[in-house]
Amino acid sequence: MMQWRAGTVVGEVRRWPGAVELTVALDGSDEPAGGAAEPVRALAYTAMVGVPEVGERVLLNASALLRGLGTGGLAFVVARTDTLPADPEGGPGHIVKARYTPLQQMLLAVDEQDSPHHDDLAEADDLEGLPVVVADLHSALPAVVAGVRHVRPDARVAYVMTDGGALPAAFSRAVAGLTEAGWLAATLTVGQAFGGDHEAVTTHTGLLAARHVVAADVAVVVQGPGNVGTGTRWGYSGVACADALHAADVLGGRGIASLRVSGSDRRERHRGISHHSRTAYGRALLTPADVPVTTLPDAALDALVRRQVGELVAGARAALTAVEVPSDGLLEALGTSPVALTTMGRGPGQDPAPFLTAAAAGAHAAALSARR
Length: 372
What we know:
- The chain is 28% helix and 23% strand.
- It has eleven helices and 17 strands.
- A six-stranded parallel beta sheet has the order 11-10-9-12-8-13, sandwiched between helices.
- The mean pLDDT is 93.
């Protein structure tokens, strides 16, 4: 279901590479939330619609905004009704993403025939032991990279963005900030996701490009912002973590399963190790992977997580190996992040566990990369 609204741009809030956040005064007086006349937040992807100017009329997809969703809870500019963006310069590329939607994009994929990297990838079949960290939530990405840099400040990190959450890479201010700071060597958008430094058709070719095109020392595979969950065992987008680890294994990479952990989530199913990690790694995963753990500041939570890790390793269908990562310096490493660290509305001060656990996965990957 889509709910369309029209309005006029009244201001610019902020912008980052690929996106600009605006305030838009909606037509009429009945939106949103029972007649509030305040302008609404709206996001424009500049590669799609350019940069709407103050005073311009815009057409919005307001569905998530009107439902009051926390994830994606803003309007999106679909079109500038009085102004068409200039056509981009012609070039190669015929891979369509967001396929058969009104906003489909035709892009040059790193693995297609027109790509200058096609010959490198045509027969590529081996990651050559590349450490591949897989995580559930997009919020884990900066913490994983902080952990990598804690061990290897010079490591080249490639982010492989899957399509379980946001499709446009430009939606992520974290990716923009990490890239600007030099913490990411490249972002590769795979599947239906688009807008990275390189496009790839599958997670497999995204990983191969990370190794053979980007020359990454570590790859991090995480969905874009906006994970989906239903409170059921299998109905959540993070179950694809298992698929990413399968891809890493079949291509000769070293799979590292980053645990989703919380000490502050009010939902029992997410306390300690989330049921998302327990299902993805314990039930869906069929190939070996390392499971990094580190000492958590809360002794009771640390004991709970270690008990849960033991149960996970013992009961998993795949051969999981728990790996102890020293906690010394990890919290300080997180403090160097060039982007804000937050997950489910909480930062390291309220809930350090998810960030420390993700950083431990990155630190383990960096240690492995140094031995390759």
